[in-house]
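Proteins fold. Shown next:

***
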Amino acid sequence: MGVTGPPGPVMDRDEADRALARLGAEHEAIETSLLALQDHAGRRLLEGAELTGSTKERWASADASITLLWAYFDAYTDALHSARGIRSRRRWSSREDLVELTELLRGSGITVAGSTTATANAPTLAGTGKLSERFSLAALVDRMNELYASSLDMVVTADAVWSALPARIDLLAAELQRTRALAHSVGVRPGEHPSGDDLERITRTLTALRERVVSDPLSFWVPAQGSSAPGGGRPDTTAYDREARALEEVRREIEAVLTVRQDAEARLVKLRDVLSRADRTLAEARSARGEVLAKIAASEVPAVSGPPTALQEQLATAAEYRRHAQWHRLSPLLEALEERAEDELLRARESLTAVTQPLAVRAELRGRLDAYKAKVARHGLAEDPFLVERYDAARRMLWSAPCDLRVAGEAVLRYQRAAAELLSPQVPGQGGPEDRTDHRGSGA
């Protein structure tokens, strides 16, 4: 076979030496990177895992690319070794040596043969129908960089997901087991309490999630926007975070039930006290209603309801739940009872206020009448016959039974007006107070 000649100008000895030094350093760097990739924990895990989905497909391609990388590196090593052999023939290389070196270092005479499996799966040769390729050293380095970057990205991505999610899922599963044991201790079980059903669902979801993460880690990866660096992105923890929040909600529910177990007796005692006060208030309202009907005439007095028997029955049910340690049933019942008991006490107080309103009105009228009498006495008019007459009339109405509040109120108002007239200052020249003496018995 004839020599076609070197591509471009023939290198001199200095150029050849510099090129060989650069290629030697490059060879060492590539070898270090390939060995690091070969020993990467993610690659070893990928080799031993039962993969599925997109991870299985991408690993088949990446594994073939790594195989080709070593084939390319071996060809690169052989070419570098050959070039060093040519340069070492003589201290001062002949032109023929330099032509041969230039052809080797700059030409495209490096042939790389790949295995059938590698060329079928690697992205560089797949679909080309070629079992080998020819490269220059520079093109071979570019190809190795390309394959290395894509293979490393796949390995780093899978390793990042495996490093992040399974451990977190295991920790959450351990917390789930503790929560389940706690729930069981307070009677929260599947089929009997919603939180028990939630725990079962979370358990199934976490088990399936871990299996998918282990077999198909790449499906849980979110690439970084605009990043071309290997492994640029983050693990997708959306499903994990959702289950973690669900477990936290269940845990709070269980803690609420535990609080019920600790405070149940005190809360039941308080409930009995509130309902007892409501009963006493209603009894007082019923007694007051009888008094009002006897002492106040022409007054609408509202009826008073009986004690809340339904609440008493629910209170007995709550005590039964506590006795049998059915805390998950006691918790919602106590909350409802506490709210209804406070409402019942408020209703009883409002009923007592409504029933005793006429008595309060009578008491207010009595107080107003006595206050004006005291005021009149301070001004020396306590013995005024007209005021005495009106006071006595109002007092008889207010202290009689039954008392007509409307008429009594008018009598008190008349007394107030008469007292106000006597107590108001007189204008000079307009005479004294009006003479209210009855002169019908005097002579002409």
About this structure: Confidence is low (pLDDT under 50) at residues 1-5, 426-444. The first strand starts at residue 110 and ends at 113.
